[in-house]
Structure formats: structure tokens, C-alpha cells
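Quick one, C-alpha cells below. Sequence please?
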């Protein structure tokens, strides 16, 4: 079997302007980075939204460390749409170098359902992540300069929220001390790093659709607090203009292509377990003007990416999700049914039936939102006919449509049945999308509604620190913000070791973070942190480049 890299290198790419022409983009609408990567100019947003525009959300059951192929299914579905005569643009997040060199690897799909050029997208791409990193660190530098020259705004040194950002996994930078040395070396204080995907600036970039909005959001970032617990925002430091200048081109969506030469937008990269987990609102808005179908992949399971896409992104964008795809795998069902990772290749029909409870909860979640869904059974070579049939019988009893998907091995052809079922759902007009909470509800109520509806929790416990912060945010006028839950992706609960469908449990909010620029309050559940670490054997050990410049080991 050919590797993803071998398949990608054998692909025949079209010049990116020819890919754009398929959805009405001229060469003048693009800013070329290479022959195969381009920025879409802001003027495209002046076009009207297509009357036949539909939005399809690709989510999943609770993932395992094996990976369930959600990105691959999203790409394959978009390719299949073109095969049945529908124009479609798949919207994906940009890969972060942290997971690329860490444990997860690249994020461009796989097999014959990839976005290309894979190596460039997985590495520096068009520089958007670097722009976010430098804008974040510019604000940090201006903050420290302000402290050094007298602290006129009255920052309480122990209540400074803004740290620095780096697009790598580096656990040693989670807690740091800056300003060591002599009097000319700054004010000594504790600080921290976040991975760039967790930067508030990444969240902002993914949710604004104009330069005016961008500057307004940057100006609202709460950098720290005074001794009287008054917020001090980035606008008061005078940093916003320079930050916006760094982000000028990063706001424009990136156009690339699938392995079948259909258009793909890959833009912004917030993680779904610590941020809102979907590609940009800009990408969605551009897609709705160019194609019949906007297919957008949301991070991890429906409890994270889908919830945030609907409650935050779709609400802010003012559009409806017309249909959803829930990606499931036999091996994930077996893991949630109690099978150890090392034994998932062995047939175990009973574990499939037991693990189905997890998938069942995700089906329920989409029904709570009022969005019609189809289950995509992403087939792997180790799946047996008995296991697949057991799952199909359970889905038939559930009354939910399903499709056996083979896009990894067959490309768009392997997703035609899924595409036809998605079109049937999306064009039925049966979507009655609703939100889990109203923005004017108090923060505690919003958190409880998400936890009970999406996770199945009986209730929420708050530490004293979390309660104090939530009360402070409400007193200072931030109670009407979105809720962006930070939670493990490996369980419906806040404990990554609890698999399947947990019952009779409560979740614990251990902390809360205010991202006023992005419009979020982020409750922290369990031991989530904003700077991952490298594993014992990171992917970086397997990545190399030969003397001809060919990169090996990316996947």
C-alpha cells in the first residue's frame, strides 16, 4: 500500500488559479504564494451569498488516540460532491507545528482524500501562524516595555494575563519567569507561554470578517488587571495598529486543492479542546458566495467542535447548518467498548455493540441542536463484515441514515453514497438549528447547559477560584460572552480515562479564562493546559529531508 506522501507526490496538481476558476474566482481575485497556494482577496466578500448555499458540518464520535479520519472524510466528501454534480469547497483548519512534530502528525487528510501541497500546508504554509505568533508576542513585548517605563496603567504584577506564544509543543515554557538580570532588563515576574493555536489572536482571526472587526477585537483583549480588579485592555497599550498590520494578510483565506483538483480553503487553526476548533468564519463566508456546499470540519467530537461551531461560529455568522456528518470507526467503537488499543485489529462484535453507546450520544447531540445528521462509517482494512453489519443494525434501529465510506482508498468515488445522503438531508429543509444557551444568561447557567446537554453530566462543580473569576467577569460586563469549554477530547466527561458513554457523573470547572477580544469565557475542565508537551517519541524524530530537498516522515 502506498503511503500518504507517495500518493501526494504522484498527484497531478493544477495551477491554483485554474482551481479557483471552478468556483468563479479569477486570477485577479487571488494573491499567489506559489503556483499551488494563494490568498483569496477580501473583495470577494462583496459578492452576494448564493441562494442555494448550504453548510455541512463534519463532526465525529469521541475520538481515540488512533485517529478516526474526520479530516479525510471531510475532504473525500467534498470530492464526492463534485462527482455527483454539486460544487463544494471543503474548509479545514491550518495544521499547527506542535502536533506535526509531536504526536498527532499532519492535518491534511490521507490516502486519496488529501489537500495539497501536503508538505507546504503542514509546515510553514502561507505564514499565518507566524503572523499570529508575532502579533501575540508584540503585545507581550509592549506590555513589558510599559512595565519597565513606569507602569502608568497600574497593572497588578500578579494579575497579568498575557503571556507569550510559540507554535511548538514545549512543556518547559508553561510557567516561566521573565525580567531577570539588572535594572535594564525589565521587571521580574512570572509569565507563561501558550501554543499559537491557543492564542486569543488565533481565535479572533478565525471569527472576524473585516479589518475593522479585527482591530476592534484586538483592542478588547484583556491584558491584565489593576489592584482594584479593573481590566486593562490592549487598546490602552497602543499595540493594536501594529498587531493588525502583522495580521493583514493572515485574515485572507488560503486557497489550495484536493488530490482530485477541487477547491479547498485551509485557514486559521484553533484547537477544539482548548479553543473553538474550526477553520475561519472568513472561509465559510467566502465559500457560501462561491459554491453550493460549504463543508467544514470541526475538531474532535460533537461535544467540542460541533457545539462550538454552532453555538459560537454559526451564531456569530448568522447562518444555519443544513446537515451534519458524524464520523465513526469500528476501532473507536471497540475502544469505547473496552478493547485496549493494541487489540483493536481483532474482531470483537460485542465490543462494537457496547461502544455504540458513545456514538449514540453524539447522534443525540445533533438532534438536540435540531440538525439532521448522517453517520459516516469510515472503513479501515481491519474492519470485519460482522462488525460492520452489527453497527449498521444498531444505526437502523436508531433511525439514522448511514454510509460506509472508503474515501481513503478510493477518493471521491468512495464517498458518493455519503454525498447523496448529505444532499438529501441538506436540501430537505429539515434543519431547525437552535442554540444551547442565550447570550444574556449568566455564565454559570450557560456552562451547566452545555455540560448537561452535550456531555450528559448531572451537574457542574466549580472550584472557589473558578467561581471568583466568573463573578468578576460578570461584574466587569463580560457575562454576555460566548462559552468556549476547554475539556479533554478523549471522553464525554472531563476525565480522559472514562470512555464509552459516562453516566451519573459531574464535571468540575477548575479555572476560567477571559478572552474578551474573541468574545469568549473559557471554563477549564480537569487538567487541560494551553501548552502541550512532546511525547517520549515525537514525530520530529521520524521527519527528515534528503539531499534533493524531499521531506520524509510527514503524515
Amino acid at each position: 500500500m502506498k503511503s500518504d506522501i507517495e500518493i501526494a507526490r504522484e498527484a497531478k496538481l493544477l495551477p491554483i488559479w485554474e482551481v479557483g476558476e471552478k468556483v468563479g474566482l479569477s486570477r485577479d481575485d487571488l494573491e499567489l504564494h506559489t503556483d499551488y497556494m494563494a490568498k483569496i482577496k477580501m473583495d470577494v466578500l462583496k459578492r452576494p451569498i448564493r441562494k442555494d448555499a448550504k453548510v455541512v458540518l463534519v463532526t465525529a464520535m469521541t475520538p481515540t488516540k488512533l485517529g478516526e479520519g474526520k479530516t479525510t472524510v471531510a475532504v473525500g466528501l467534498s470530492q464526492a460532491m463534485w462527482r455527483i454534480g454539486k460544487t463544494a469547497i471543503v474548509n479545514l483548519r491550518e495544521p499547527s507545528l506542535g502536533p506535526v512534530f509531536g504526536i498527532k502528525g499532519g492535518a491534511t487528510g490521507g490516502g486519496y482524500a488529501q489537500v495539497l501541497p501536503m508538505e507546504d500546508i503542514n509546515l510553514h504554509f502561507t505564514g499565518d501562524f507566524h503572523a499570529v505568533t508575532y502579533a501575540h508576542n508584540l503585545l507581550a513585548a509592549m506590555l513589558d516595555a510599559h512595565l519597565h517605563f513606569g507602569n502608568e496603567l497600574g497593572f497588578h504584577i500578579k494579575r497579568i494575563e498575557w503571556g507569550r506564544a510559540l507554535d511548538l509543543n514545549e512543556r518547559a515554557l508553561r510557567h516561566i519567569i521573565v525580567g531577570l538580570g539588572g535594572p535594564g532588563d525589565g521587571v521580574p515576574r512570572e509569565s507563561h507561554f501558550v501554543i499559537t493555536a491557543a492564542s486569543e489572536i488565533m481565535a479572533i482571526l478565525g471569527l472576524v470578517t473585516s479589518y475593522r472587526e479585527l482591530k476592534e477585537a484586538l483592542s478588547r483583549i484583556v491584558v491584565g488587571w489593576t489592584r482594584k480588579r479593573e481590566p486593562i485592555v490592549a487598546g490602552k497599550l497602543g499595540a493594536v495598529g501594529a498587531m493588525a498590520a502583522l495580521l493583514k494578510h493572515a485574515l485572507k483565506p488560503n486557497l489550495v486543492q484536493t488530490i482530485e483538483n477541487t477547491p479547498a480553503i485551509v485557514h486559521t487553526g484553533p484547537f477544539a479542546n482548548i479553543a473553538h476548533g474550526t477553520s475561519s468564519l472568513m472561509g465559510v463566508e467566502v465559500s457560501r458566495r462561491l459554491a453550493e456546499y460549504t463543508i467544514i470540519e470541526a475538531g474532535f467530537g460533537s461535544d467540542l467542535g460541533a457545539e462550538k461551531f454552532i453555538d459560537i461560529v454559526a451564531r456569530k455568522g448568522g447562518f444555519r447548518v443544513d446537515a451534519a456528518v458524524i464520523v465513526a470507526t469500528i476501532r473507536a467503537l471497540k475502544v469505547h467498548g473496552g478493547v485496549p488499543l493494541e487489540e483493536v485489529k481483532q474482531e470483537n462484535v460485542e465490543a462494537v455493540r457496547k461502544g455504540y453507546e458513545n456514538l449514540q450520544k453524539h447522534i443525540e447531540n445533533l438532534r438536540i441542536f435540531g440538525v439532521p445528521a448522517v453517520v459516516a462509517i469510515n472503513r479501515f482494512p481491519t474492519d470485519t463484515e460482522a462488525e460492520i453489519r452489527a453497527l449498521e443494525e444498531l444505526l437502523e434501529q436508531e433511525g439514522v441514515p448511514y454510509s460506509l465510506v472508503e474515501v481513503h482508498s478510493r477518493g471521491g468515488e468512495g464517498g458518493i453514497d455519503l454525498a447523496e445522503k448529505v444532499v438529501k438531508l441538506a436540501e430537505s429543509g429539515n434543519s431547525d438549528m437552535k442554540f444551547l444557551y442565550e447570550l444574556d444568561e449568566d455564565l454559570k447557567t450557560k456552562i451547566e447547559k452545555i455540560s448537561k446537554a452535550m456531555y450528559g453530566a448531572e451537574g457542574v462543580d466549580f472550584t472557589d477560584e473558578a467561581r471568583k473569576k466568573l463573578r468578576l467577569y460578570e461584574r466587569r460586563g463580560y457575562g454576555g460572552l460566548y462559552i468556549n469549554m476547554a475539556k479533554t477530547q478523549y471522553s464525554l466527561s472531563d476525565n480522559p480515562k472514562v470512555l464509552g458513554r459516562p453516566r451519573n457523573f459531574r464535571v468540575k470547572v477548575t479555572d476560567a479564562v477571559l478572552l474578551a477580544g474573541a468574545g469568549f469565557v473559557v471554563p477549564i475542565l480537569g487538567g487541560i493546559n494551553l501548552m502541550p508537551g512532546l511525547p517520549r517519541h515525537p514525530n520530529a524524530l521520524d521527519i527528515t529531508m534528503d539531499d534533493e530537498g524531499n521531506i520524509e516522515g510527514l503524515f
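Residues 443-525 form a domain with the Formyltetrahydrofolate synthetase; domain 3 fold (CATH 3.10.410.10). Residues 128-148 form the longest helix (21 residues).
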